[in-house]
Amino acid sequence: GLPPAMQKVMFKGLLPEEKTLREIKVTNGAKIMVVGSTINDVLAVNTPKEAAQQEVKAEENKKEPLCRQKQHRKVLDKGKPDDVMPSVKGVQERLPTVPLSGMYNKSGGKVRLTFKLEQDQLWIGTKERTEKLPMGSIKNVVSEPIEGHEDYHMMAFQLGPTEASYYWVYWVPTQYVDAIKDTVLGKWQYF
């Protein structure tokens, strides 16, 4: 049920489309493989990024809020860190020139975010070490306000291909959330 243009023939590798089976010397009893894609498969792969993000958001809206999930509760239940940065609700600010500090990671350890724009890197610093990540290696950034403390967000940086690779940061001041996303995902803001 697939049109020929959506089919590929493989025999000792992908075959050039202009060659016939006789020309490539396929003998009787040889194993060949035909692979194909429906037009829907192709369109699903080529879905524009924005549409894919909207689908992810719609899916997230159906789920229980992140801050109620068990893995996040154990960190959030520790309460706000003593040295958390002040938050300004309803305001968007550009990134400060100093590192964002006073936040927790998923194990409840202190974490600081340093945006090295001249090197196009995000430095994630803990007591143990500092990870220096190229901005382009971060696949996505998700965030959600913390229930009962909407002036702070929990935020995740996707460092690999799946959700399992999220690096979670808790108690991010809300005024910096959009600037962080825009900076990491490449939507530069000039103020």
What does it look like?
This protein is an alpha+beta fold and 191 residues long. The protein is built from four helices and nine strands. A seven-stranded antiparallel beta sheet has the order 6-5-4-3-9-8-7, covered by helices on one side. Strands 1-2 form a two-stranded antiparallel sheet. Strand 5 and strand 6 form a beta hairpin. 14% of the residues are buried. The model has no long low-confidence stretch (mean pLDDT 85).
Short description:
The protein is α+β, with helices and mostly antiparallel strands and 191 residues long. It folds into two domains: 1-37, no CATH class; 64-84 and 91-183, Pleckstrin-homology domain (PH domain)/Phosphotyrosine-binding domain (PTB) (PH-domain like, Roll).
Q: So how many helices?
A: 4
- CATH topology (fold) name of the largest domain: PH-domain like
Order of strands side by side in the largest beta sheet? 6-5-4-3-9-8-7
Cα-based radius of gyration, to the nearest Å: 24 Å
Helix content range of the residues, please? 10-25%
Tell me the series of helices and strands, N- to C-terminal: EEHHHEEEEEEEH
Q: What would CATH call the class of the largest domain?
A: Mainly Beta
Q: What's the number of domains?
A: 2
